[in-house]
Amino acid sequence: QVQLVESGGGSVQAGGSLRLSCAASGHTVSTYCMGWVREAPVKEREGVAVIDTFGRIRYADSVKGRFTISAADAKNTLYLQMNNLKPEDTAMYYCAAATSCWATIPPYAYNYWGQGTVVTVSS
Questions:
Q1: Residue 22 near residue 8, CB atoms below 8 Å
Q2: How far apart are the first and last CA of the chain?
Q3: What percent of the chain has pLDDT over 90?
């Protein structure tokens, strides 16, 4: 079992920055796949960024060049640095984990989820 707790969400003006964090506990290992998923009203869940089993990083096209995912403590801590935020980034952001993945993973395939943290970007 893995428990995930996100923090760092809030309200920010367009062009601003936020840094989300996720603390993982339970039976986690460095080979787990760790990522961020967001969900907004009227939109389907979108995988934002992921660190796969081998440490490779992938980003959604919508956030490339603006967001940076990183991990520490053998992936027990996960971060999402979000720069140049846009109103369309407004969503609930979830930290998610899976036992393994190769480069990409659809949101439904994650095994564990945090409770989410809200990010609101105003124009």
A1: no
A2: 40
A3: 85
